[in-house]
What does this fold into?
Amino acid sequence: VKPGFDASVLRLDNGKFLSAKIDGNPKHCYLNPREGAIGCFEEACRNVICTGANPIGMVDHLQFGNPEDPEVFWTFKESVEGVADFAKFLRIPCVGGKVSFYNETSLGPIKPTPLIGVLGITDKTFLTAAPPNSGDYLVIIGKTKDELGGSEYYEYIHKFVGGSCPIVNFKDSKINMLTVLSLIKNKLVKSAHDCSKGGAAIAISELSIFGNIGCDIDIEKLSYKKDFSIEKLLFSESHSRYLLVIDKKNINQVKQFLLKKKSTFAVLGKFSGDQIQFKYKSKY
It folds into this structure.
């Protein structure tokens, strides 16, 4: 699988497949360097999971300003501790890395920018993303929360970088990873895509563009809470979320599996036509 999808996949000489992805989000790390760095790590894991590979190792490239500035050094310390905490929880070793300091201009230091690369392995085969067809269902795994802080929506619509960045729930993250891997292993998924920058609206649109097909989506099903604003539903950048394209012949089996696992999920709608339509409170 070439670069451009959720992760790249390489075939190894021993017949196994290696999945690789690098992720970063300076805005989240600027708002909260610890939680932002964990989010970068988890996003890279999600992308590897979407190929059907199990994360087995990580590398980092930590880019910061002048470490002699106490505030800059604090952001570095927080980022490193966050990455270490998540790596220990997932039992994923850090097998290499690089630190780059003194990244500044006359306007000041760069935003804290840890880049996290994750490697995953799969023994037999991997999930090749198949474009959605008419009648395919779209299922989301994970919780959409009130987490617009540091979002693309805030920056590009409201010209504002602020708020509280999304936070990774370690337990939910692991459960959702294993759930998606199980569905892929059982060949119940046509395509998997993570929700990240831009939120669910962007991720859903990317799938439709990939398949050159429209979709009919009930965005109120995105949240496990009532009375979320349309902006939060569409553009919240909550972590640990996966969009799964499911063939109509498999949708009942997938729902039964997710109910049995007590996973947080929703069937958002179907792919059809040539328009991307989001329904909110019975209106498009």
In short: The chain has eight helices and 13 strands.
